[in-house]
Amino acid sequence: MCEPFWYNIVVKPDFIGFDVFEAKQANYFVENVCLDLNYFKAIGYPIVVIFDPIISMVSGEIKEERYAKAITRVANQIQNKSGCAMILTNHTTKLSASKKKQKADPFYGSQAFKAFCTSGIYVCKNEDYGGVKMISTKSSHGNTLEQIHLNYDAFTHSLFAKVDASGMKNYDKVLATIRSMRT
Predict the structure, then answer these.
(1) pLDDT per residue as tens digits for the range 106-163
(2) Which residues contact 180 (CB under 8 A, 6 or more apart)?
(3) 136, 91 contact by CB (below 8 A)
(4) Is the Cβ–Cβ distance between 71 and 54 less than 8 Å?
(5) CA-CA distances (angstroms) from residue 141 to 2, 120, 145, 173, 177?
């Protein structure tokens, strides 16, 4: 079992309640996040920034382009100043009894999110196999698998793929195997 390196994970609750749609708050947010990132970069850590959930970064509705653009503008500034990788996450709403299926759109219909992101992954319950299913909805660089099924192991706190029962295409199985050998 591999233990995570908890000493290189930083959680910043300082920005809860900030609204990056407001210019002053956005600038303060960018400058302070970049200060932390520059410190970790100087001591040799690879940097990945995760905004989770992005809906809490603005006071408005992220389906509106002006709010989506505010989030991508801040993410882009942080990326340009620090050279970091960026992951934007959000959570879909639960389905009501009348609504049986959700649209697999991690971008919430936003052109700003779709243009900013190089890949999009929609995670939903896998009705066929149990667990969850990750569906690629965008892969600009061809680096995401089309679909993968994941199960959760509560003992090891990890996600794993049952490849033979996942519904994955043979091509994706080969890609997953080759990529796992490179790491």
Answers:
(1) 566 678 888 888 888 888 777 777 778 888 888 887 777 777 777 777 787 777 776 6
(2) none
(3) no
(4) yes
(5) 29, 11, 11, 18, 18
